[in-house]
Amino acid sequence: MTITSRQYTDDDLPHVQAALARWIQEAGDCGYCHVGELAYHIYKGLHDKLPISELVQIWEDESGIIGIANNFLFDNAFELFTSPAYRGTPHELHMLQAAEEITRRSMQKMGSEESSLIIDVWDCDNTRQKLLSQLGFEEYRVWGYYTERSLSLPIPEPQLPQDFTIRACTIADYARYVAAYNSAFDADWSPETYRDAVMTKPGFDPQRYIAVVAPDGQFAAFTIIWFDEVNKVGLFEPVGTHKDFHRMGLGRAMMLHCLHEMKRRGMETAKVGHDATNLAADGLYQSIGFTREYTTLGYKKV
Asked: How would CATH label the architecture of 4-136?
């Protein structure tokens, strides 16, 4: 069987998402991200580095796509998702080596001061852990948690402070969205750059950007909701609240609103992930019925 690799193009997104959804349907979601998270990492996570075509690698055999790697995430990280038929094989080991090489080369090209490589691994994914150990990676921290909630459970109605509203966005809202995003995550995106590099790219739909709007028109809280139609799983990525509007229950109300929307759209499960150190997010998600499904472990290679 012949395996080839090539660079990613924008036209590939629906095909890699469809492949990822099939892999999850076949083997379960351990070791696989949500199809929406894949798009978010490509366009938001890899922006402003090298051309995305250089950083996203696709592998194919006669059956179609069998692997996809996002390289040079967060300056020294990469991720690889592989067809169940190739998990744990020398082919997957070769893909990991190729992703490592692309990431190191990109770090050198961009003058990165980092000397180590990192990759997330699901705690359930013994296959990937063994391969990484062969390549010299070692576990060094708990990275985060993936949590889930059944949409068959009762979903409370959202409650907002007076004169606050929740609505879907349009592309014209880009400046208000970016202002809230920058505040929540201490980021420095320019509104026009985020609009052009993320919001208008394949896989993104402004109608899936949901915002809590303050009485003065500011976006006080925000999220993007994603749908895996094959596995009937909705995802929140990201979730944030403007610093001026903390402790008002806005994130809770927004997420409850979105849970109703996910159920209306035929989803059966909702998922959201968070960093292990984000205790506020952990408390919020637990309060609306999310429970931990997987722990992600950080693996490092110097």
From this structure: 3-Layer(aba) Sandwich (3.40)
Strands of the sheet with 219-228, listed across from one edge: 4-7, 56-61, 64-73, 77-82, 117-122, 291-301, 138-150, 269-275, 233-241, 219-228, 209-213, 165-168
| CA 295 – CA 297 distance, rounded (Å) | 6
65 contacts 13 by C-beta, under 8 angstroms? no
- Tell me, what amino acid is at 137? F
Surface-to-core class of residue 162, CB atoms within 10 Å of its CB (0-12 exposed, 13-18 middle, 19+ buried): exposed
Q: What is the pLDDT of residues 154-191, one digit of tens each?
A: 999 999 999 999 999 999 999 999 999 999 999 999 99
Kind of pairing between the strands at 269-275 and 233-241? parallel
Report the distance separating Cα 111 and Cα 178, nearest Å. Answer: 28
Contacts by 92-95, CB closer than 8 A, 24 or more apart: 92/67, 92/131, 93/131, 93/134, 93/135, 95/57, 95/59, 95/67, 95/69
pLDDT at 1 over 80: no
Please, where are the H alpha helices in the chain?
13-27, 35-40, 52-55, 90-109, 126-134, 174-185, 191-194, 250-264, 279-287
In which residue ranges of the chain is CATH 3.40.630.30 found? 4-136, 149-295
Q: Which CATH superfamily is domain 149-295 in?
A: Gcn5-related N-acetyltransferase (GNAT) (3.40.630.30)
Q: Is the pTM of this model over 0.90?
A: yes
Count of alpha carbons within 13 angstroms of residue 255, beta-carbon side = 25
Distances (CA, A) of 42 to 78, 177, 267, 274: 11, 19, 24, 19
Q: How many CB atoms lie within 10 A of CB 226?
A: 25
Q: What are the tokens at 178?
A: 């970016």
